[in-house]
Each structure stands twice: as structure tokens, then as C-alpha cells.
Design goal:
561 residues; disordered N terminus; two-stranded antiparallel sheet; 9% strand; two-stranded antiparallel ribbon; 39% helix; globular; 14 strands; mainly alpha; Serine Threonine Protein Phosphatase 5, Tetratricopeptide repeat; 24 helices
């Protein structure tokens, strides 16, 4: 393994898939076996397992921008349009549910499989490792089960059930049934919950940021339960071991997380996001007016539970430098220009004005989540005065941009640079390489909202509303749906919520007719939701070919079989 660190964040990259270690060139000249360790002999200590888990975690980020799970999920939802430039077919294809070529989603589909293989290898050899600490053993084993569930759940939400491989044998398998797939996912998560230590967040330590724990597994089990039972019209999940997971079980897990995890809501919703950084961002009146202060990403944020950590220390001299940094943030930036405090990027995902208009009066999450370029409170002299409409053949411009994952810049000398470059000036000086904001995969606010949805009570939902400056409401599914949309906007969840609630077509096509600009010219937004696909993406055609046709194409995309 090669470990790349900086003072703030840690990101790991696997060097060889099966975790073998190369010997030196002198050994090569004597024709000694280049591989000192095989998978049979590698797993002999807890440190070996930790390294192997590092390799599995390294499969979570997706460096391919157009195939980044956050970006794909955001563009398919009703909250964002395609954007980018006139020649950025990928943005438009994802947003419009069309396809530019049959292998477009190869990276999104294939990126999880190395992680699954690495986890299966860990589980295969785990019993041969000797641990002196039962707690450390259970934590490592729990993380392995969690990661396998994570990868399969990500694949299944985007593509529908996929082949279910639980060992390292090189064999082609057909797609699993939904019952088989979610039975295994839920089983792995329940196993992780049952064996991982019940250590409160404050006692875990900043060095474990980005690692799974019992509380994160509880949140993901609730997310899996809601998607499976909602989308497939079920009331429970039969687990892989034959036991049954009920709604009551999931509620118990969520209540345990709420009561004992140590996670909670930050006092101000906006302080979770880098734009609220008043140490490095000196030219953003919004922060001063609202008395904001970023909690940062080094452990003080007790609301963020599971996140992808990045680094600014990639360079064009390294292998695949874009995998070090947050491509999601780069792709969400203002198209090819900077308007302090909002930075340079590819202009993907302009916000649907209907989302902006749907917030209640006084909801601080509206301006805390969305940039209204006509609002004089945005920017140094206002974004309205400096924003470049049609900076480079812009598409789907609506006048609204997401704020949560926007690159954040401020003036440094004669130019504007990323706040992360200010923090780490020895990093590569390149606008594509200095975004290192965490991608937050699970927040405590979602725990509260899922608890409200499963219990059909307003308690958790009203805690989230109170933090947003709003009054209490009675529980209804419609109120819960609105609350999730506003609290979790642009966090990669909305599209899957629409699917499980059975309202994707209605919600997405409601944006038809919204006024936009394409290449500086007035236009209207239009999309047709492909109901025949069930809302799932097509399996890349090359993957079907590689399986010798054993894996079938997603229904509704048969032309790519």
C-alpha cells in the first residue's frame, strides 16, 4: 500500500489489487519470484487487515467526473438540470435519461467491483488473523461487512440488482433477484451493527474520520430498508440467513443511534459547508451578516457521520491525479470563471428554480443551499454584477446554482484561489486539483428524518425544522417529503427518494417548461422520464459482453444488450 497524507486529511490508494508486495530488482535478476506474499499468506496480522480495508475504502471515490455518483444522482433528480457546455453530452444525457454511447456509465458501474473483491478477500481470510483485542477484531470485521453492503447498495440503486458475488471465484453470474440482493445487503449491515463496538463519536477520534462504525451502519440499514420496501412494495426484508428484518427492528436501531451515538445537529445548518469559512473567506458579506463560522472537516463536525476524504496533493505527475481530489465539487463550480467566493468549474447541475421557490419563508436552508445569482447579498460586489452568463456555451442556465458543493475561493494577492490552496500552499497550483471538500454520504439530520418517516411521527422532522428557523408541523408523508428535499438537497439522495416513493416521473416532468438559457438564448427545459427502465441506468454493453451474456441488460435499455 502507498499512503499519501497531509496535515488535515488522509486518502489511501491501493497499488496492486491482491495486495502483493514486489521485491527489489536484485531479486529479479536472480529470477526470484517477484511476489513475496500471496493472498493466502498476506493476512497474518491485524495490520494486514487494516491495509486491505484501506484498499476497499479506496474504491468508494469515483474520479470520473461525469460518472461521479453524486453528480449522476443530482442530475437525474428534479432539483438540477444538466448544464455544462453545448458539447458536454454527458451532462445532458444523464439529465435527459438518454445515452450518448452504450458504455457511458462504465466507471460508475465498474468502480465498486474492486472494492467488493477486496472485501470478499478479507472475509475469506479473516479467520486466519490473530487478534489480541476483541474490540479491534469486531470493528475490522464489521467494516468489511459494511463496505460490501455499501458497494452493492450503490450499484443496486443506480442499476437495479446486479450479480451477487460473495467469494473471489472468477465466475460469471446473472443478476440477483431484488430479494436476494437486499437480503444480503441488509444481512451484511445487520452483522456490522451487531458486532461493531458501541463507541460514541466523541471517543472514536479524528484519525477514524471516513471509516464506518456501528452508528453509520444503522443509518445505512434504515436507508436500505426504506428503499427496498418502498420501491419493491414490501413490508420487511428476509435476510440471507433466513431471519427477517422488520420496520420495528429498524426503528430500534435508529433510536439507538439517536440516543447513544454522540452525533447530533449543529446549531447552524450553514456552518457545515465551506462557504461559511470566515478565516479564509474575507469577501462574502453573507457570512458576516449571518455570523457564520465553518466547523471544518477535522473532527468538530459531529453532524457528518460518513464521508469521503480527499487531498490536494495530487499532481499531473502522479497516476490518475484527479482521484485525489473532489471531482464532484469541480464539476459543480461556475463554468470556467470565478465570482468570489464561488469558484471555477465545469458548470454542471444548474438548480431548478422550482426548488428555490418551494422553500417556506424564513427557511435559512434556501440561501444556505442555493446561490441566487440575482441576489445582491451573494458575492463581494454581488454575483449578479459579476456572474458570466454563457461563459462558454453554457446550457440550462437558470439563474440558480448549488452552494453546498461549490468550490470556494477568495482573493490571494492578485488572483482568487481555493480556500484549500490557502490552507496548503505547497499543493499543486491547479484549479482542477485543489478541491478537497468532503463528500458527505450520511448526516445525522437524515437519521432524524428517517426515524420520523418510519415512525410516522414529527419529532425528528421538527428538530430539523427548528434548526432551519421554522415552526413545528404535524406529521404527513407530504411534509416529510418536503423536509427531505429541503434539508438534503444536492446530497445524492433526492432521486432515490423519488423512486422509492413512486413519484419520480411526476416530480421530474413537473420541471418541463421552466425558463432557461442555452448558449445565451432563451429556451425552456424539457425531459421525458423513461418509466420502462424503472428509473435504473443501463449496464455498460462491454460489461454484458465480458459476462458472455450471462448478465442481462436493465429492462428498458434492451437496445444495448
Amino acid at each position: 500500500m502507498k499512503k499519501i497524507t497531509d496535515m488535515k486529511k488522509i486518502i489511501y490508494f491501493p497499488v496492486i489489487l491482491l495486495l502483493v508486495l514486489l521485491t527489489g530488482c536484485e531479486d529479479f535478476l536472480t529470477q526470484k519470484n517477484l511476489y513475496e506474499k500471496s493472498d493466502e499468506s498476506y493476512f497474518s496480522s491485524p495490520e494486514d487487515v487494516d491495509e486491505a480495508l484501506t484498499g476497499a475504502y479506496a474504491a468508494i471515490p469515483n474520479p470520473a467526473g461525469n460518472n461521479n455518483p453524486f453528480i449522476v444522482a443530482k442530475l437525474m433528480s428534479d432539483d438540477a438540470f444538466g448544464g455544462g457546455g453545448a458539447n458536454d453530452d454527458g451532462f445532458d444525457a444523464t439529465d435527459a435519461f438518454t445515452l450518448t454511447e452504450p458504455d457511458y456509465y462504465t466507471d460508475l458501474f465498474s468502480n465498486s467491483w474492486p472494492g467488493i473483491l477486496r472485501v470478499n478477500l478479507i472475509l475469506k481470510r479473516f479467520d486466519q488473523v490473530e487478534y489480541t483485542s476483541e474490540s479491534r477484531k469486531n470493528q475490522a470485521l464489521g467494516e468489511a461487512h459494511f463496505l460490501r453492503a455499501f458497494f452493492y447498495f450503490r450499484l443496486s440503486q443506480f442499476f437495479g440488482p446486479v450479480p451477487l458475488k460473495l467469494n473471489t471465484d472468477p465466475v460469471n453470474l446473472p443478476r440477483a433477484t431484488p430479494e436476494e440482493m437486499y437480503g444480503q445487503i441488509a444481512y451484511d449491515l445487520k452483522t456490522a451493527i451487531d458486532i461493531m463496538p458501541s463507541t460514541p463519536y466523541q471517543s472514536i477520534g479524528a484519525g477514524r474520520l471516513g471509516h464506518a462504525n456501528k452508528w453509520i451502519a444503522q443509518g445505512y440499514l434504515a436507508r436500505v430498508f426504506l428503499f427496498y420496501t418502498g420501491y419493491y412494495n414490501k413490508t420487511e426484508i428476509e435476510l440471507a440467513d433466513g431471519s427477517v428484518l422488520t420496520k420495528a427492528d429498524v426503528i430500534t436501531y435508529l433510536q439507538d443511534c439517536i440516543d447513544n451515538s454522540g452525533y447530533g445537529l449543529l446549531p447552524d445548518f450553514r456552518n457545515q459547508w465551506p462557504y461559511s469559512d470566515t478565516v479564509h473567506v474575507k469577501h462574502y458579506p453573507f457570512n458576516t451578516i449571518n455570523n457564520l463560522g465553518w466547523v471544518g472537516e477535522t473532527g468538530d463536525n459531529y453532524e457528518s457521520m460518513f464521508m469521503i476524504k480527499y487531498s490536494v496533493f495530487g499532481s499531473w505527475a502522479t497516476n490518475d491525479p484527479l482521484s485525489y481530489n473532489n471531482q464532484h465539487s469541480l464539476y459543480s463550480g461556475m463554468r470556467l470563471h470565478t465570482t468570489v467566493p464561488f469558484g471555477y468549474g465545469w458548470g454542471g447541475g444548474p438548480v431548478n428554480p422550482q426548488l428555490y421557490e418551494s422553500f417556506e419563508d424564513g427557511d435559512l436552508r434556501r440561501d444556505g443551499s442555493i446561490v441566487n445569482i440575482n441576489d445582491p447579498a451573494e458575492g463581494d460586489e454581488s454575483v449578479a454584477a459579476n456572474y458570466q452568463w454563457n461563459a462558454d456555451n453554457n446550457m440550462d442556465e437558470s439563474g440558480f446554482l448549488e452552494k453546498k458543493y461549490m468550490p470556494i475561493y477568495d482573493s490571494s494577492g492578485a488572483r482568487a484561489v481555493s480556500i484549500y490552496f490557502m490552507m496548503y500552499p505547497s499543493a499543486q497550483d491547479n484549479q482542477q486539483l485543489w478541491n478537497m471538500q468532503d463528500d458527505v454520504l450520511l448526516r445525522f439530520a437524515d437519521i432524524l428524518l428517517m426515524h420520523s418517516e418510519l415512525t410516522e411521527t414529527a419529532d425528528g422532522m421538527n428538530l430539523v425544522r427548528e434548526r432551519a428557523g421554522l415552526g413545528e408541523v404535524s406529521y404527513s408523508l407530504a411534509a416529510l417529503q418536503a423536509e427531505r428535499r429541503h434539508e438534503l438537497a444536492f446530497e445524492g439522495l433526492r432521486y432515490f427518494d423519488l423512486l422509492r416513493w413512486g413519484i419520480a416521473e411526476q416530480a421530474i416532468e413537473a420541471a418541463n417548461g421552466v425558463a432557461i438559457q442555452d448558449v445565451g438564448n432563451p429556451s425552456t427545459y424539457s425531459v421525458d422520464f423513461p418509466a420502462s427502465t424503472g428509473g435504473f441506468l443501463p449496464i455498460p454493453k462491454t460489461e454484458i459482453t465480458l459476462s458472455n451474456g450471462v448478465m442481462e441488460q436493465t429492462p428498458g435499455w434492451d437496445q444495448y444488450q
